[in-house]
Design goal:
It contains 1 helix and 19 strands. The chain has 230 residues and is mostly beta strands. It has 2 domains: 13-146, Glucose Permease (Domain IIA) (Distorted Sandwich); 159-228, SH3 type barrels, CATH 2.30.30. It starts with 12 loop residues before the first strand and ends with a strand. The structure holds zinc ion.
Protein backbone atom coordinates (compact mmCIF):
# COMPACT_ATOMS: atom_id res chain seq x y z
CA UNK A 1 0.00 0.00 0.00
CA UNK A 2 1.29 3.37 -0.89
CA UNK A 3 0.05 6.91 -0.96
CA UNK A 4 -1.67 8.09 -4.15
CA UNK A 5 -1.17 11.63 -5.43
CA UNK A 6 -3.19 13.89 -7.67
CA UNK A 7 -1.35 16.26 -10.00
CA UNK A 8 -0.93 19.62 -8.16
CA UNK A 9 -1.39 21.82 -11.27
CA UNK A 10 -2.71 21.37 -14.77
CA UNK A 11 0.34 22.11 -16.87
CA UNK A 12 2.89 20.46 -19.11
CA UNK A 13 5.85 18.70 -17.52
CA UNK A 14 9.02 20.58 -18.41
CA UNK A 15 11.52 18.57 -16.39
CA UNK A 16 11.27 15.02 -15.09
CA UNK A 17 12.82 13.44 -12.01
CA UNK A 18 16.52 12.58 -12.44
CA UNK A 19 17.19 14.85 -15.39
CA UNK A 20 20.07 17.32 -15.82
CA UNK A 21 22.67 15.84 -13.43
CA UNK A 22 25.12 18.70 -14.15
CA UNK A 23 22.73 21.31 -12.76
CA UNK A 24 21.69 19.40 -9.66
CA UNK A 25 25.09 18.26 -8.40
CA UNK A 26 25.37 21.79 -6.97
CA UNK A 27 22.63 20.78 -4.49
CA UNK A 28 24.14 17.32 -3.92
CA UNK A 29 21.62 15.41 -6.05
CA UNK A 30 22.40 12.98 -8.92
CA UNK A 31 19.68 14.73 -10.98
CA UNK A 32 16.50 16.80 -10.71
CA UNK A 33 14.82 15.96 -7.38
CA UNK A 34 11.21 16.42 -8.49
CA UNK A 35 8.93 17.18 -11.43
CA UNK A 36 8.55 20.65 -12.97
CA UNK A 37 5.34 21.92 -14.52
CA UNK A 38 5.48 24.93 -16.85
CA UNK A 39 2.60 27.19 -15.86
CA UNK A 40 1.87 30.93 -15.93
CA UNK A 41 2.63 32.90 -12.75
CA UNK A 42 -0.34 33.02 -10.42
CA UNK A 43 -1.63 29.52 -11.26
CA UNK A 44 -3.45 27.88 -8.36
CA UNK A 45 -1.48 25.04 -6.80
CA UNK A 46 -3.36 22.30 -4.97
CA UNK A 47 -2.37 19.69 -2.39
CA UNK A 48 -1.44 16.37 -4.02
CA UNK A 49 -2.92 14.41 -1.10
CA UNK A 50 -4.63 15.02 2.23
CA UNK A 51 -2.19 16.01 4.99
CA UNK A 52 -0.95 18.66 7.38
CA UNK A 53 1.05 21.72 6.34
CA UNK A 54 4.42 21.21 8.03
CA UNK A 55 6.27 24.22 6.60
CA UNK A 56 5.60 27.51 4.83
CA UNK A 57 9.01 28.95 4.19
CA UNK A 58 11.47 30.81 1.93
CA UNK A 59 14.76 29.41 0.68
CA UNK A 60 16.93 31.89 -1.19
CA UNK A 61 18.86 30.33 -4.11
CA UNK A 62 16.80 27.15 -3.89
CA UNK A 63 13.09 26.56 -3.51
CA UNK A 64 12.16 30.25 -3.08
CA UNK A 65 8.74 30.44 -1.43
CA UNK A 66 7.69 26.89 -0.76
CA UNK A 67 5.22 24.71 1.09
CA UNK A 68 5.91 21.31 2.61
CA UNK A 69 2.98 19.02 3.45
CA UNK A 70 3.22 15.94 5.70
CA UNK A 71 1.17 12.87 4.75
CA UNK A 72 0.72 9.56 6.50
CA UNK A 73 -0.21 6.28 4.89
CA UNK A 74 -0.26 3.41 7.35
CA UNK A 75 3.01 3.65 9.25
CA UNK A 76 4.83 5.45 6.43
CA UNK A 77 5.53 9.19 6.39
CA UNK A 78 5.52 11.10 3.11
CA UNK A 79 6.24 14.77 2.41
CA UNK A 80 5.30 16.74 -0.68
CA UNK A 81 7.00 20.00 -1.70
CA UNK A 82 5.62 22.86 -3.80
CA UNK A 83 8.38 25.31 -4.73
CA UNK A 84 9.04 28.68 -6.47
CA UNK A 85 5.65 30.01 -5.32
CA UNK A 86 4.44 33.62 -5.19
CA UNK A 87 2.59 33.03 -1.94
CA UNK A 88 0.97 30.42 0.25
CA UNK A 89 -2.78 30.17 0.86
CA UNK A 90 -2.28 28.02 3.98
CA UNK A 91 -0.41 28.20 7.30
CA UNK A 92 1.81 25.68 9.09
CA UNK A 93 -0.21 23.24 11.19
CA UNK A 94 -3.30 23.51 9.00
CA UNK A 95 -4.95 20.32 7.75
CA UNK A 96 -5.68 20.15 4.01
CA UNK A 97 -7.64 17.85 1.74
CA UNK A 98 -6.36 16.46 -1.56
CA UNK A 99 -6.96 19.04 -4.26
CA UNK A 100 -7.30 21.95 -1.82
CA UNK A 101 -5.71 25.26 -2.88
CA UNK A 102 -2.41 25.72 -1.01
CA UNK A 103 -0.68 28.53 -2.91
CA UNK A 104 0.00 30.44 -6.13
CA UNK A 105 2.84 29.71 -8.54
CA UNK A 106 5.66 32.04 -9.54
CA UNK A 107 9.35 31.99 -10.24
CA UNK A 108 10.99 32.63 -6.84
CA UNK A 109 14.32 31.09 -5.73
CA UNK A 110 16.57 29.19 -8.17
CA UNK A 111 14.18 29.18 -11.10
CA UNK A 112 14.72 30.10 -14.73
CA UNK A 113 11.07 30.58 -15.70
CA UNK A 114 7.52 30.41 -14.36
CA UNK A 115 6.92 26.89 -13.11
CA UNK A 116 5.97 24.71 -10.18
CA UNK A 117 8.56 22.34 -8.76
CA UNK A 118 6.82 19.39 -7.16
CA UNK A 119 8.77 16.98 -4.94
CA UNK A 120 7.98 13.82 -2.98
CA UNK A 121 10.14 12.72 -0.05
CA UNK A 122 9.87 9.45 1.85
CA UNK A 123 11.86 9.06 5.06
CA UNK A 124 14.71 6.58 4.66
CA UNK A 125 14.28 5.98 0.92
CA UNK A 126 16.54 6.81 -2.03
CA UNK A 127 19.56 8.03 0.01
CA UNK A 128 21.39 9.45 -3.04
CA UNK A 129 18.49 11.91 -3.35
CA UNK A 130 18.25 12.44 0.43
CA UNK A 131 14.83 10.80 0.50
CA UNK A 132 13.37 12.39 -2.66
CA UNK A 133 11.77 9.87 -5.02
CA UNK A 134 10.18 10.11 -8.44
CA UNK A 135 6.53 11.11 -7.77
CA UNK A 136 5.35 9.77 -11.15
CA UNK A 137 4.42 6.21 -10.08
CA UNK A 138 2.32 7.64 -7.22
CA UNK A 139 -0.02 9.71 -9.40
CA UNK A 140 -3.52 8.58 -10.11
CA UNK A 141 -4.66 9.42 -13.62
CA UNK A 142 -7.66 11.26 -12.25
CA UNK A 143 -9.64 9.50 -14.94
CA UNK A 144 -12.25 7.48 -13.10
CA UNK A 145 -11.62 3.74 -13.49
CA UNK A 146 -8.01 4.22 -14.52
CA UNK A 147 -6.81 4.68 -10.93
CA UNK A 148 -3.41 3.13 -10.40
CA UNK A 149 -2.48 3.01 -14.09
CA UNK A 150 1.01 4.42 -14.47
CA UNK A 151 1.51 3.70 -18.15
CA UNK A 152 2.51 6.54 -20.44
CA UNK A 153 1.02 5.02 -23.57
CA UNK A 154 -0.05 7.38 -26.31
CA UNK A 155 -3.76 7.06 -25.71
CA UNK A 156 -5.22 10.42 -26.68
CA UNK A 157 -8.19 9.85 -24.36
CA UNK A 158 -5.79 10.53 -21.46
CA UNK A 159 -5.54 14.24 -22.16
CA UNK A 160 -5.47 17.05 -19.62
CA UNK A 161 -6.93 20.42 -20.51
CA UNK A 162 -4.71 23.44 -19.99
CA UNK A 163 -5.69 26.98 -19.03
CA UNK A 164 -4.82 28.35 -22.52
CA UNK A 165 -1.10 28.04 -21.93
CA UNK A 166 1.05 30.28 -24.15
CA UNK A 167 4.20 28.55 -25.38
CA UNK A 168 7.16 29.57 -27.50
CA UNK A 169 9.43 27.27 -29.50
CA UNK A 170 13.04 27.44 -28.24
CA UNK A 171 14.47 24.77 -30.57
CA UNK A 172 15.54 25.33 -34.20
CA UNK A 173 12.95 23.13 -35.90
CA UNK A 174 10.28 21.18 -34.06
CA UNK A 175 8.26 18.39 -35.66
CA UNK A 176 4.49 18.36 -35.42
CA UNK A 177 2.91 14.93 -35.28
CA UNK A 178 -0.66 13.70 -35.60
CA UNK A 179 -0.58 12.24 -32.08
CA UNK A 180 1.28 12.54 -28.77
CA UNK A 181 4.32 10.33 -29.40
CA UNK A 182 7.23 9.78 -31.80
CA UNK A 183 5.41 6.77 -33.23
CA UNK A 184 2.95 9.18 -34.88
CA UNK A 185 3.48 10.67 -38.34
CA UNK A 186 5.10 14.05 -38.91
CA UNK A 187 2.47 16.45 -40.25
CA UNK A 188 4.32 19.76 -40.10
CA UNK A 189 7.03 21.79 -38.41
CA UNK A 190 7.42 24.80 -36.14
CA UNK A 191 10.46 27.08 -36.23
CA UNK A 192 12.27 28.71 -33.33
CA UNK A 193 10.33 31.69 -31.97
CA UNK A 194 6.93 30.39 -33.10
CA UNK A 195 4.24 31.02 -30.49
CA UNK A 196 1.01 29.18 -29.91
CA UNK A 197 -1.61 28.64 -27.25
CA UNK A 198 -2.13 25.10 -26.11
CA UNK A 199 -5.33 23.86 -24.55
CA UNK A 200 -4.36 20.24 -24.12
CA UNK A 201 -1.53 18.16 -22.68
CA UNK A 202 -1.17 14.43 -22.98
CA UNK A 203 -1.56 13.09 -19.47
CA UNK A 204 1.75 12.57 -17.62
CA UNK A 205 3.85 13.03 -20.72
CA UNK A 206 5.65 15.83 -22.48
CA UNK A 207 3.36 16.27 -25.51
CA UNK A 208 1.14 19.30 -26.01
CA UNK A 209 -1.50 19.86 -28.65
CA UNK A 210 -0.54 22.82 -30.86
CA UNK A 211 -3.81 22.83 -32.76
CA UNK A 212 -6.49 20.12 -33.06
CA UNK A 213 -4.77 16.90 -34.14
CA UNK A 214 -1.23 18.34 -34.17
CA UNK A 215 1.14 17.63 -31.31
CA UNK A 216 4.72 18.49 -30.39
CA UNK A 217 7.07 17.46 -27.60
CA UNK A 218 8.07 19.87 -24.85
CA UNK A 219 11.41 18.20 -24.48
CA UNK A 220 13.38 15.15 -25.45
CA UNK A 221 16.52 13.64 -23.90
CA UNK A 222 16.89 16.55 -21.50
CA UNK A 223 16.65 19.20 -24.24
CA UNK A 224 13.76 21.63 -23.79
CA UNK A 225 11.90 22.59 -26.97
CA UNK A 226 9.33 25.03 -25.62
CA UNK A 227 9.07 27.68 -22.95
CA UNK A 228 6.08 29.36 -21.36
CA UNK A 229 5.72 32.82 -22.93
CA UNK A 230 3.94 35.90 -21.64
ZN1 LIG B 1 12.33 21.51 -10.30
Amino acid sequence: MAITLTVPVSGPITQLFGENPDIYKKWGFPGHNGIDYGIPNGTQVSAAAAGTISQVSFENGGYGNYIKIAHKDGSKNYFTYYAHLASAAVAAGQKVKAGQLVGYSNNTGASTGPHLHFGLKIDGENPAYKGYVDPMPYFTTGGGAETGDTSTGADTSANVSLPDLKLEVTYEVLNLRNGPGIEYSIVGQLNKGAKFTSKSLHSKSVWVEVEPGKWCALQFDGVTYLKVSK
